[in-house]
Every structure is written in structure tokens, then in C-alpha cells.
Amino acid sequence: MSEMRLYDTAGNRLYLNAEERAAFLAAARRQPARDRTLCETLLHTGCRPSELLEITPARVDLSGGTIAIRSLKKRRDGSGRQKVVYRTVPVPPDYLDTLNTAHGLREAQASRKRASAPIWNLSRVRVWQIVKRVMIEARIPDAPHRSPKGLRHGFGINAVVSGVPLHMLQKWLGHAQLTTTVIYADAVGKEEQDIAARMWGQGA
User: Fold this and answer.
1) What confidence tens digit (pLDDT) does each residue in 79-117 have?
2) Which residues does the UniProt record annotate as the domain Tyr recombinase (predicted)?
């Protein structure tokens, strides 16, 4: 398995920084409902596109403010059989309101058939195309981080900068090992300055 990194071999950043996340969100909010909610879900949950496409109305807890995501990375239990692992990720209330309004989630949850149908009936390629188009509109530079993976890494960086404990971030991102999540504690540049500023604020 290849090691997860925040920079490629040429030193290019692989995550969206705070300003780019804000620009992406602003551009997403100008899109049609389907594309807007798709982009906001990737931004607010840090899920992979393949995981997003499995989200159904039944997995959205409107009152609890969370989304249950099935981790698609293969894992084995003690007997060697593949495990099915779900994780719940807390999301902003205003985003949930938009998701509910755009897709009629509360009504869908009342129907067993609709509750188990994917919210976004798209291919992974189409998801990638939508995200790339919105990123271009947000004027995110044409670089390796302009991708859905850049959103996932940006979610991790933002969580660390915001003071989210690594064990909690591990759960939200669906990492099997904490050693994978620790990469986000190695934040640099403006993100590292924000972390240092919090430390200075706790000083003398």
C-alpha cells in the first residue's frame, strides 16, 4: 500500500488550504442543487467520491446532525473475512437543511425504497468532473490539489487546525490506523502558523 502524503514528489501541495476551501464552498453554493450538495458533502465530511455515492437518505440523521458513511477501504476481521465498517461524521446544520430541502430527505426516509436509494445517482467520473468544474470556477490553481482528494486532505488539515483530536479525526476519515491520520498533524505553512498561534494564546 502506498504511503499517504500531503505533498507529491515535486513538493506540490495535495490539499486545499483554508482560503481555497472557502472559495470552493462559495462556488459550490452557486451551483444547481444536486451539484451544490455533492460538493458540500465532500467538503464537510472528507469522504471519498466512492463513499459519497453510497450515501442514502437513511444514513442522514437530520436531528442528530450526522451522516453515516460506509468505509470502502478493505478491512479484515480476525478470521480473515472482509468487515463492513460505518463511521458517523457530524456536519453543519445549515448544510443539512440544504441537503434535506434539495433532496426531500425527510419524506424519502418515510419510504423504505426511497430511503435506501443513493442520493446521487452518478458515476465516480461524473463526480470528479463536477468537482473539477467547481474548483475551476473557484479559481483554484491548476495543480495536483485541484481534485476530490484535495478536498479530503483539506478536511483533515482543517480539522487539525481547528483543534480536533487525532483519534476523532481518524474516526471521521475512516482510517484503520492512527498512524495514517498523524500525517495531518504535520501541517505546514499558514496551517502550521494557526496551530502555533493557538499555542501562543495558551502561553503566559
Assistant:
1) 666 678 899 999 999 999 999 999 999 999 999 999 999
2) 11-198
DSSP 183: G
User: For residue 101, what is the domain's CATH number?
Assistant: 1.10.443.10
148, amino acid identity: P
Distance CA 18, CA 145 (A): 13
Contacts of 47 (CB under 8 A, 6+ apart): 41, 55, 69, 89, 152, 174
Nearest to 62, CA basis, from 24, 12, 17, 103: 103
Q: Is 125 helix (H, G, I), strand (E, B) or coil?
A: helix
How many residues are there in the chain?
204
- 45 found inside a domain: yes
Which one-letter DSSP state was computed for residue 79?
T
